[in-house]
Design goal:
Blueprint lengths: L15 H29 L2 E6 L12 H21 L4 E6 L21 H8 L8 E2 L3 H12 L3 H26 L1
Parallel strand pairs: 1-2, 2-3
Helix pairs in contact: 1-2
Length: about 180
Amino acid sequence: VGVSKEFGGLVHLIREEEVEQMLGVNNGGTVGMRQAVLTYMMTKRTGSVITISSASCTHPTPLLSMYSATKAFGQQLTRSMYYEYKEFGIDCIAITPYYFVSNMFKRSRATYLAPFPDSIIDATWNVLGYEAEAHPYWCHWLMGVLAKNYHDTGNGLLGIMKQSKARALAKGAAKAKKS
């Protein structure tokens, strides 16, 4: 589960209700779900906690600062839980994908860069129990390696995000004109 501002934006321009919604869904929902299932998993001495975070929390992501910070919360919580709960037979892993087809990234078809969620889930089973966090989908792993080794990721992504936002706003304006 995740909530973000539709086109991203500067932190000081995000409305208070949008901030509260992001914190509540992205962080409150993450904690609430864990508290609801961990006691049961501990008594059974088995289970898995898979957090779908976001690659945006693994490096600077301008115009998605608030969203990526909320996703960093889930990533850090799960990475720590990986060690805390292993002795109870519970596997915890934070998955940090880039774009994938979802309600947040609406596409009618998948691409290598933005697959259907099944591709990410299928790849997750191979690392569950062995890693605290991962980019299990091969293309996202490669993108993560590139982002980690690109020394100016923040500025590069800022340019990309500004272009994407401009395209989306122009597309929305064109649709509004046709109506």
